[in-house]
Amino acid sequence: MLHGPVMIDIAGTELTGADRDLLCHPATGGVILFTRNFSSTQQLYRLTHEIHELRSPHLLIAVDQEGGRVQRFQQGFTRLPAAASYWQCARGDEQAARHAAREMGWLMAAELRAAGIDFSFAPVADLDFGVSGVIGDRAFADTPDRVGRLAGSWMLGAREGGMISVGKHFPGHGGVVADSHLDLPIDERAFDEINAHDLRAFARLIDNGLEGIMPAHVVFSACDAKPAGFSRFWLQDVLREQLRFQGVIFSDDLSMAAAEWAGGYADRANAALRAGCDMVLVCNNPHGAQEVLNALAGYHDPVAQSRTARLHGRPARTMKRLREDGRWHRAVALADNMTTAGNLAFDLGDLS
Predict the structure, then answer these.
(1) Can you name the residues that pair with 71 across neighbouring β-strands?
(2) Is residue 3 part of a domain?
(3) What string of DSSP letters covers 123-146?
């Protein structure tokens, strides 16, 4: 049974019969986990193993594990710094900032792979324009070149840890005040301005082999009346044609308030797929997930399926073996140094 086009969530720390039924639905292609699905690293590994054993090829298992404010799994995992910390703590030393980003990308990926997670929805490639509270310190920096370099280093580290990366939120969520979880943000900037700033960060990641992208539920009104995640202009004309992106396009969560623009859940899913998404996410709404699965039971896109088949994590060490690795110890020390309250800088010489 090949991957379906829908990624759903589950209720708790163990699979129920209802969970198994949904995960075995032909339209299901993956699972996104949340904090409620985690109690310990041992429990998490049992859960991911059971999910992977349900089907062949395995369902994809994902999580949001950026660091800072967005880290679903904490106890038993290293506390990761927010993306903005790399440049701030480096105090203008780009070599140090890029080294830190690479090591934290590796650490994040290596720990998640040891627990059976295929990938994280990261890195954030949005620019910090100082207006978006939902982005804020999740952005690496406020300039596209710096974001591209730091996010690229983070992506390289994740790849070394056995994991693909998913850049978000294309073409950029940092220029709007509204939070797309709660409202439909509208960015009135002209395409030339977005192309000269926000898109440059994504273009750099794409040029370096970025495997996945998640578009924003944001309307760029001077470019298209549709939110980016439902827009053929953004997903086909710009992302596929102009930027030559060949990886997987994931919708952002169709349960978010901004996605209501497209109608009911089945309408949202179909609109996202028609625009160019390869896989759609439906989170925290079981009825919505069931509606989408029913609507897409016969959906088949061989090109999308060939893309998603490349997202599985590479073979990983156990958590015990990982913690015997000197790189893990150095990376944990670096993370602790960056996340210590009141710490404003790190000493690369002590931790490299």
Answers:
(1) 65
(2) no
(3) -B-----S--TTTGGGSS-SSHHH
Is residue 278 one of the residues assigned to a domain?
Answer: yes
- With CA atoms as reference, report the closest residue to 51 among 95, 97, 115: 115
Specify the pTM. Answer: 0.95
Separation between Cα atoms, residue 41 and residue 351, nearest integer Å: 26
What residue numbers bound the domain in which 299 lies?
Answer: 84-343
β-bridge pairing 65-67 and 70-71: antiparallel
Number of domains in the chain: 1
What residues act catalytically? Answer: 181, 252
Q: How many residues does the chain have?
A: 352
> Residue 323: which CATH number?
3.20.20.300
How far apart are alpha carbons 210 and 231 in whole angstroms? 21
Encode pLDDT of 25-54 as tens digits.
Answer: 999 999 999 999 999 999 999 999 999 999
342's tokens: 């009141």
Yes or no: say if 154 and 210 are a contact pair by the CB < 8 Å rule: no
